Structure formats: C-alpha cells, structure tokens
Amino acid sequence: MTGKSTDRLSHVSADGTARMVDVSSKADTARMARATGSIAMAPATLEAIVANTLAKGDVLGVARLAGIMAAKRTADLIPLCHPIALTDVAVTLSPDRSLPGVRVEAVARTVGKTGVEMEALTAASVALLTIYDMAKAIDRGMTIGEIGLTEKTGGASGTFARA
Q1: For residue 92, is pLDDT > 50?
Q2: Has residue 10 been placed in a domain?
Q3: In this predicted model, what pLDDT tens digit does every residue of 119-150 receive, in sequence order?
Q4: Cβ 43 vs Cβ 133: under 8 Å
Q5: H-helix or E-strand containing 110?
Q6: Beta-sheet pairing, 86-96 with 143-153
Q7: Domain that holds residue 118
C-alpha cells in the first residue's frame, strides 16, 4: 500500500468480509497481462523433454494447451475472480539449458471491465505443473518457481511493468 487514503483491498468490504468487486460501472477497455515462471530440473530430464522421449508424450505441447485451458477456467479456480471473455491466450515454453529447465511466458488479452492478470498467472502456473506431472516419473526433484506478473496494460490502474 502506498498510504493514500483511497488504498484498500478491493475484495474486502467495509465490514471486513470477502466479496466480489462490482465492475458494472467500469468502461470496457483493452487489457493485457503477461506472466512468467520456470521449472528447474536435472539436465537429463530437460534433454528427454526436448527430445520428446518421455512415455507420456509431447510435454511442451501438452503443457502449452493445459496453460491455455487453465486461463479459460480461472474464474472456476479463484473464488472472487470474474469470468471473462478472453480474446487471446498464448503460452510459450522455452527450454533453458542454463537453468536447466523450462521457462514459461503466458499472455492473456480481453476487452472488458476487469483485468486478466489472474488468467495469465493461472496459465503460467498450470503449464509448469503439467510439465512436472508429465516428467515426474524420471525427476521428482523438479522445482517450480519465479512465477509472477511481468506486465499489464489497460484499465484504470494503467500500465505495470516489473523492473
């Protein structure tokens, strides 16, 4: 919080109970959110993913689709999230041998009354969880981390870019 008198948690009512924010009076605007994250693993696990030799199949392809599907179901998973009509969801998975592991970038877009930060974060998280699920038979020591919002545009709060 910045200390301004208007600062408050938007999902908490005056009496302290959780509530869904009423966005009915807000104008529709173009909105975009980008989230990133990573999963670290043994070098041999990364090589098996890249070579597409795991028994469960195409890890990166399935994880990409899982991330897209998750973004579309965010309101079912996060209790106070509004269901939004997404206009685009893109999930990019990039093997990174210096990690070693895979980096994810998820971008969600809409034209609406509320932002898509949670959809981008959910897409990134589920894509990484899917990689873990598909590769856990050979590497239970994988670590998911660094998930965060890196950029958002649109809405009354304007633009955010993580430094």
Answers
A1: yes
A2: no
A3: 999 999 999 999 999 999 999 999 999 999 99
A4: no
A5: strand 101-112
A6: unpaired
A7: 29-157
**pLDDT at 25 (0 to 100):** 82
Residue 2 has pLDDT above 50, yes or no: no
For residue 137, being part of any structural domain is answered with: yes
Kindly report the CATH number assigned to the domain that includes residue 99: 3.30.70.640
Within a domain: 36: yes
Given a cut of 50, whether residue 3 has pLDDT beyond it is: no
Which residue from 53, 97, 89, 59 is spatially nearest to 71, judged by alpha carbons? 89
What residues are labeled active site? Answer: 133
CA distances from 86 to 33, 35, 105, 139 (A): 11, 15, 17, 34
The number of folded domains in the chain is 1
Helix (H) or strand (E) holding 14: none
The vertex-102 CA angle with 96 and 104, nearest 5°, equals 115
Rg (CA), the chain: 18
115 in any annotated domain = yes
Element counts in the chain: helices (H) and strands (E): 4, 5
Check: pTM over 0.85? Answer yes or no: yes
Please tell me the predicted confidence (pLDDT) of residue 8.
59
Q: Is the confidence at residue 13, as pLDDT, over 60?
A: yes
